[in-house]
Design a protein that fits this description.
Mean pLDDT: 91
Radius of gyration: 21 Å
Largest sheet: 8 strands, mixed
Strand content: 15-25%
Strand order of the largest sheet: 10-9-11-8-7-12-13-14
Helix content: 25-40%
Number of strands: 14
CATH architecture of the largest domain: 3-Layer(aba) Sandwich
CATH class of the largest domain: Alpha Beta
Distance between the termini: 53 Å
Number of helices: 13
């Protein structure tokens, strides 16, 4: 039996955009053993596929990890390798292992990956164009084009969520996600302003359930002081108010998927949460902010929207002015 390898050690959002493509690979190589290399960023979402063998590496590969990947390919009977994480190191492998079919997602930009010399050693390619606006396509489509398989498709995606009994999940909930880069770095909103934004959402919706990033303890502590919360790490519920807002602390992986699945709709910054929501067929509003300095910046932002957009993409561009952002939100929710 031949083995198939998928290289996908990247961020959570990138992994979510590849779910359907990975399912196509499993269908295309249904009689093969399929390995997938994930990152420490995204491996907790490995519950989505039970049919694959998983190895975990860093997002940025260390020298020893590169050797391990090289050795794995050398010592296993690999028929096909799918490069779904377009890292420079991976494009040198087809030049070395010429009997293996390498299928590569390529980038055409000011820093193209791979270069024209290495690209000719790929068995098949699909390209994300970032310079020619007439050729820009969604990463979803680019990956599906790379796999190029459309017959007798089975569903190997594993979404078996048991009945949630830890606490009474609020009915008709809108899931919101606080993202530090968007709210604090781009919009320049302090944490108190972010809380006002959450309160605004709560005034428009029956219930708000929201998460935050794991590594921002100061902001998370602030949220815990203002709202009811449940800590998934400590398995502890903390009730401090009667507001229709629940903060989910230390949530990731399957728990995160489950909470979004239990929600009615999602309002979140463009990224992992919005892509999970789209995958689960939830009504989704992706939040963005464009820090545009010149015409080149306008083109790059348009490119990003198209490249990372799934079907039926809905988005709202927030402004640094808080009141103006609320006025825009009021018209969309």
């Amino acid at each position: 039996m031949n083995n198939v390898l998928i290289l996908k050690n990247d961020r959570v959002g990138d992994y979510i955009t590849s779910i359907n493509s990975i399912n196509l690979i499993l269908n295309k190589h249904i009689n093969s053993s399929v390995y997938i290399f994930l990152s420490k960023n995204n491996y907790k979402f490995n519950f989505l596929f039970k049919k694959m063998k998983i190895k975990v590496f860093n997002y940025d590969l260390k020298l020893f990890e590169k050797f391990l990947i090289f050795y794995f390919i050398l010592t296993n009977k690999i028929s096909d390798v799918y490069i779904l994480a377009p890292k420079n190191f991976y494009y040198y492998l087809p030049f070395i292992f010429r009997r293996i079919k390498f299928h590569g997602l390529c980038i055409d930009s000011d820093r193209s990956r791979p270069n024209s010399f290495l690209k000719k050693y790929l068995y098949s390619t699909s390209t994300l164009f970032r310079k020619d606006k007439s050729k820009i396509i969604s990463t979803y489509i680019a990956q599906e084009n790379l796999i190029n398989y459309k017959k007798n498709i089975q569903n190997f995606i594993h979404l078996d969520f048991p009945e949630f009994k830890i606490f009474n999940f609020p009915k008709n909930s809108t899931f919101f996600h606080y993202k530090h880069v968007l709210f604090k770095k781009l919009l320049l909103w302090d944490t108190e302003t972010a809380v006002k934004f959450i309160l605004f959402l709560a005034s428009k919706k029956e219930n708000i359930v929201f998460s935050s990033e794991l590594n921002f303890s100061e902001e998370n502590e602030f949220f815990k002081k203002n709202f009811n919360s449940y800590d998934f790490k400590l398995k502890k519920f903390n009730k401090i108010s009667s507001k229709n807002i629940l903060f989910l602390e230390n949530i990731e992986g399957k728990d995160l998927f489950n909470m979004i699945n239990l929600s009615t709709e999602v309002i979140a910054p463009e990224g992992a949460i919005s892509h999970i929501s789209h995958f689960l067929n939830k009504k989704t509003l992706s939040l963005m902010h464009f820090n545009i300095k010149n015409q080149k910046g306008i083109f790059r932002q348009i490119n990003d929207i198209i490249e990372w957009s799934p079907k039926n993409f809905r988005f709202l561009v927030l402004k640094k002015n808080f009141d103006q952002s609320l006025a825009k939100m009021s018209k969309r929710i």
